[in-house]
Structures are given as C-alpha cells and as structure tokens.
C-alpha cells in the first residue's frame, strides 16, 4: 500500500498538465485550446430593428441574407426576446418596471392569456409541458401535435417559437383545433405580419433548417433609477449627441433599417453593420461619449453600467443555450449595438469560438 500512497500524494501535489504559473492572473481564455472536442461556435449577427423599416417594405429582400445564415448551419438560434420566466417576472414587478413590462412583455402576456381558453395552463405550467413535449418529440409529428406545441409555446411566453411550429405546418393546417382557438390562430397570423427580425430572420431560418424553436435570450431587468430621467434628458440634449447623429458615418448605422430596399442593398447593409469598424464606431459613438465627458450626477457612467449589465445578462442566457450544444453551432440575432459587446464577452468563454460574421456574409 505504501507505493500507492506515495503515488497518490505525488498526484495531489503535482500541478495539472498545462497549468500556468499560479502567480499569473487567471484568464478564462487560457482554456480555449484545452477542452475535449471541437469548440462551440457562436456567431453574432448584428441587425437593424426591422420595426424601423418603411411602410410597405418587402421582407423578400432578406433572402440572400437567409441563404448565408443557413450556410452557417446553426443548431440553435438565439434571439433578442424575453424568456417566459423573464416576462412573468417583469409582469409581476410591473409596478417597478411599468414601461418595460408593457413594451416587452405585454403582447406575449396577451397571447398567453388567449391560450388559456384551450390549454388551461399558466406560464410556468406551460413551460414545463413544453420541455416534456420536446423531450418526447417524434421525428414526424402530426399537424395536431405541431398545433398543440405552438399553443404551448404561446402559453409559455414564447410566441416566436410558436411561429416556428405554425410555419412548419402546411398552410391548410394552420387552423383552429382543440389546442388553438380561432382567436389565437388569427392573432398568430397578425403577430407574424409584424416587421421584426425575430420573425422574419430567426423563425424563418429555423423553419428552413428544420429546427423546432428559437431561443429567447433578452433581459430587461437592469434597474434604472427614475430620479435619473431628467439628468439623462439634459445630458442627451447637450451638443455632443446632435453632432454624433449628424456624422455621416454614424448616420449610416442609425438609419440602417431604411437601407434595406433591395436584396443587394440589404446584404451590403448587414455586411457593414457586422464589420469590426462599424462595431467600434457604434460603441465609441454611443457609449464612450457617455464616459469621457462630465454628466449630471454621473448619469453617463450610470447609463453605461446598466448597458453592460444588460449585455452581460443576455450573454449569460446565450451561454446557457450554448451549454446545450457543446461543440456545435449557435447563431445569435440581436440589435447591432449589442454585437461588439457580445463578441468581446463571448470571446472570454472557455470553449467558445466566436465566428467572424462579416466573413460568413461575404461568401
């Protein structure tokens, strides 16, 4: 037993293979090349919010973009939408976050309420049933099964994933039944008609790739102090913001949703938004300008801190999604202002490879 004890003692005392000098500050990026298997590839697509497109805008101009995103072959698609638990929490705390709860959770809550006519489930019950259903999901589900899963997604506060199921049905099968009331069927079609990247890029791409859902990863719980409302208005009324918005380079970023008139123009706009230069220009314009000048009650620094808070919470949600797909591919679709921050934070993750979006779009 003595030789074995000595061997064990040596193993305990010896540093692990590849360990760095303990005096050197830890950096999780040193783990990038030591994991077993392929890295998890995450690509962040920065997008203009399509709600800002002109009236009568034609979504078909997105097809070349969808072709290139499909070529990335993501196993999961994360979107800038609140999760069901996030919506439920924000609604419970709507007295604290009244505008956020109504703006980002109100529609999902209303749709979820419609689903109770047929399912009789609250959001937590529906979320649990979604998980059970997907765990036993057949390779060839019936239309009835897809309609029920669509209704469950709605009830769980995830109408974007409900659209994936709705659109995977043949048009004649997108109808009311025991799971979906006539009202909910009509409202799903109305919801789908809204110009939104979560529908027109993420859900459409999920359908094309045969995915069953998209993955909500937004977070709006950063705690803004209402006492800062007037100071931030005063700060934003200072000349620096008007000068920034008048800068032709920054104007191209701010007005990107209006530069999607043709397929070629759309692809050029997305290539521009996802370039390193655009990311730096956006970050410096919006956020450095709040840090490098005086502001009332340090409101500029407060605003940047909360922007970082939101980005970190969103990236944590994306990381949680990626944890389900080790060594595979995750596409993140998010407002372009978030992209440089997401790329930087995700680049810190131990087994993640951040994919060059501009390179994919250039193909």
Automatic annotation (TrEMBL):
Signal peptide: 1-19
Origin species: Novosphingobium ginsenosidimutans
Pfam families named among the record's database cross-references: DUF5694
Protein name: TraB/GumN family protein
Keywords: Signal
InterPro entries assigned to the protein according to its UniProt record, in alphabetical order: DUF5694
């Amino acid at each position: 037993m003595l030789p074995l004890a000595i061997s064990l003692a040596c193993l305990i005392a010896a540093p692990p293979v590849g360990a760095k000098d303990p005096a050197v500050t830890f950096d999780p990026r040193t783990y990038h090349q030591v994991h077993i298997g392929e890295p998890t590839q995450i690509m962040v697509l920065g997008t203009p919010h399509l709600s800002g497109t002109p009236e009568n805008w034609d979504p078909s101009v997105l097809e070349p973009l969808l072709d290139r995103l499909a070529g990335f072959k993501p196993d999961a698609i994360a979107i800038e939408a609140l999760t069901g638990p996030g919506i439920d929490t924000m609604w419970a705390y709507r007295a604290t976050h009244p505008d956020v709860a109504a703006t980002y959770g109100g529609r999902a809550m209303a749709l979820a309420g419609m689903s109770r006519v047929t399912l009789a489930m609250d959001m937590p019950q529906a979320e649990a049933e979604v998980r059970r259903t997907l765990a036993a999901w057949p390779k060839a589900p019936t239309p009835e099964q897809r309609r029920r899963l669509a209704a469950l997604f709605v009830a769980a506060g995830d109408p974007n994933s409900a659209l994936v199921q709705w659109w995977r049905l043949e048009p004649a099968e997108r109808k009311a039944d025991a799971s979906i009331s006539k009202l909910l069927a009509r409202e799903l079609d109305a919801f789908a008609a809204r110009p939104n990247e979560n529908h027109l890029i993420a859900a459409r791409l999920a359908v094309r790739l045969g995915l069953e859902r998209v993955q909500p990863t937004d977070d709006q719980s950063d705690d803004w102090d209402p006492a800062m409302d007037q100071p931030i208005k005063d700060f934003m009324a200072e000349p620096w913001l008007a000068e920034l918005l008048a800068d032709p380079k920054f104007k191209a970023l701010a007005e990107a949703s209006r530069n999607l008139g043709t397929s070629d123009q759309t692809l050029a706009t997305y290539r521009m938004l996802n370039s390193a230069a655009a990311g730096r220009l956006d970050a410096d314009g919006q956020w450095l300008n709040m840090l490098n000048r005086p502001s009332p009650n340090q409101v500029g620094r407060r605003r940047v801190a909360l922007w970082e808070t939101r980005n970190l919470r969103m990236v944590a949600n994306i990381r949680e999604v990626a944890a389900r797909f080790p060594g595979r591919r995750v596409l993140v679709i998010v407002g372009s202002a978030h992209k440089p921050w997401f790329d930087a934070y995700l680049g810190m993750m131990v087994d993640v490879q951040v994919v060059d979006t501009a390179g994919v779009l250039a193909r």
